[in-house]
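Technical appendix A lists one of the benchmark inputs used to test multi-chain prediction within the project. The record comprises two sequence entries:
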Amino acid sequence: MNKIAPTILQGTRDFLPIDMAKRNLVMNKIKKVFEKFGYDPIETPVICPAETILGKYGDEGERLTYNFETSGGRKIALPFDLTVPFARYVAANYRDLPIPFKRYQIQRVWRAERPQKGRLREFYQCDIDIIGTKNLVSESEIARIIVKVFKELGFKDFVIKFNSRRLINEILRSLGIAEEKFIDVIRVVDKLDKIDKENVIEEIKKLGFDNAEDIFDAVLPAESIEKTLEKFSKYDLKEIKEFIKNCEDLGVPKKYLEFDTSLARGLDYYTGLIFEVIGKGTSLGTLCAGGRYDNLCSLFCNEDFSGVGVSFGFERIMLVLEQMGSFENVKLNSKVLITIFDENSVASSLKTYSELIDAGINCEIYFQPDKLKKQFQFADKKRIPFVIIRGPDEMKDETVTIKLMESGKQKTIPSKQLTSYLTEYYETEK
Amino acid sequence: MNKIAPTILQGTRDFLPIDMAKRNLVMNKIKKVFEKFGYDPIETPVICPAETILGKYGDEGERLTYNFETSGGRKIALPFDLTVPFARYVAANYRDLPIPFKRYQIQRVWRAERPQKGRLREFYQCDIDIIGTKNLVSESEIARIIVKVFKELGFKDFVIKFNSRRLINEILRSLGIAEEKFIDVIRVVDKLDKIDKENVIEEIKKLGFDNAEDIFDAVLPAESIEKTLEKFSKYDLKEIKEFIKNCEDLGVPKKYLEFDTSLARGLDYYTGLIFEVIGKGTSLGTLCAGGRYDNLCSLFCNEDFSGVGVSFGFERIMLVLEQMGSFENVKLNSKVLITIFDENSVASSLKTYSELIDAGINCEIYFQPDKLKKQFQFADKKRIPFVIIRGPDEMKDETVTIKLMESGKQKTIPSKQLTSYLTEYYETEK
């Protein structure tokens, strides 16, 4: 029979147990922080009516999104982010939701891009949002959560850049730039973390501004929050100042905050404060980003929900943590392998297995009698620290031999003591 | 502007926070049991090359599966179960896997059916499999896991029906039924839990057998495992007996096992022992099913992987647990709401929030000053047990008022004692 190649699409991934162990470690830490701040998870469908996903994105959206027609003629699309499904979700369910509503959502999204190096077509996004309040308490909570997440994940050096969309607009207006040009200028200024000063100025010139250097200088921050506040004191800094004050009251250490007046976040979507988290010393740049938006659900209903939210770049965070060596000690679930010496010891090994399970120890049995060497190799491959041997001698003496895989040492103890030996070990380990 | 209806496809679902709380409760209990037995999770892609999903299913598969062509001409399909993706995964990755390999997998799958009442087009499946060993230790482990899962979930009355495909075939052969008719007869016999004896016999007759009653009597079990073993003693019962012995050694209580010689599991896929878990006293029948198969990966490679696995009917289990009232006390994440009395108390409330977060208490702040009544209603809607009030009096006296939402009682304590008050409460609760 001809075989089908067991391939997957480029930009999608099979996750091996060790990959999952790493991913779940990180995901659980992130979830735990969200839950600490009272966020609850939600989930939205994967297969969606195409119009609810493509809504405002037109042709380009259609090209970049997985979408198709069913045999029944229904056009379906897969989400390309979690914001659009969340907007639809709120419009459909707001009557049943506590408002202000905050949720976290960790799900896959899909992009029908031609996958370049490292570009994924299927990946996880990890979003938090607070909707239904314009109060800047929300923004400071987001900052506090960001700090806690990255600290829990073991990041030492990171910074939350923040700015206000309103402030940028005010600055550009004061420079005499026409409103309809704002977004173009913002897009160029936003490149400052990727290209250098000269090139940014060059690109501003290309937009038709002779005073490109003035524009550039006018948006650049000073070297500290205080000095930047001073430099821009002729503008309305009320929301910036309130945000900083809230952060202080909520215990966000100042060292993590950077008031970057050149920060713009490309999309025209944001209307208030914007955020970008940079992992210093990593090559991967932005690890989390977001901001305040108005009218989340305007595509779907007339209710006016202002909100603020950020998206954690889960896949990127995984790459950085891998580079940082954070996963070196990651283990799989099983802590003990019970070997089966020969046909005559199956019953005895099964009984040992049952005892350890009852004692609450994560363990497993090698499913068939085999050479011990092969069973040890299996334990090695699964990174299992303890291997239990119950051969004819042990059965006769009512003992059990424990092999510590790391050191290769073996010790034989009375069978009765096995459970407490292992339980103690795990209590010590914690 | 015209609004887009915020609808979802029939047979898909939005999960509200309370739905998620219930689902995660159940999912986490199930995962924990799997992990106890040394199972590790894996994940496979959602968008797949169509041929890897549709492989052997031909036109019917194509009709019942979500599949489509990209603009680049690649045919893509979404998984309709987790077995086919797992087979593909093993064929692609077996060199990197510890063999015998066991994994659990909990992911969404899709069925392009016309959704009837309660039929879902998008739902979670929850599978465990052990591959790479033919030893019946595996089957007994599956039985032990099933018992532990259902006990952990609070099921009191359930039974694991088991049988052997080999035994059924032997019985049918001994009745003079032609091999090519086996699957038809098995399909009819399998209906015994849905239609009554007379109708089953009638249907067997329709297949062209005059001795329908004999066939029926010949496959029916006796009233206990021992008596059934006796009734079928002329057949080869070696694997059944070994399975029962292993279950005994592994601590599977006998009361959960039922040797049902009429159990067939419709598909021709299984080759050895088969299982079906019935929740007694529920109207929903089979809650988990599976069995031994050969050549898992035959579609994809020449390696011969025998395996055994079961699929837990997650969505069905959720329905039964809901009927059983298991979710009455399910709470959301947040345990404490910190109110904001007025503009002047924002800073004070933020500081309290920060303290509680640092103390590790799941809590949240109401994002803006508002009428206390409205803030209480919010707490009610989120099922938050404690509400903290810090108004002008409390701020002056350095106290804090705690409202216990369930009883409606309020008490005022010194601010300093708040953290330990709440911490103690949660320690008592555990």
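The longest strand of chain A covers residues 101-110. Chain A has a mean pLDDT of 92. Comparable benchmark entries are summarised in Table A2.
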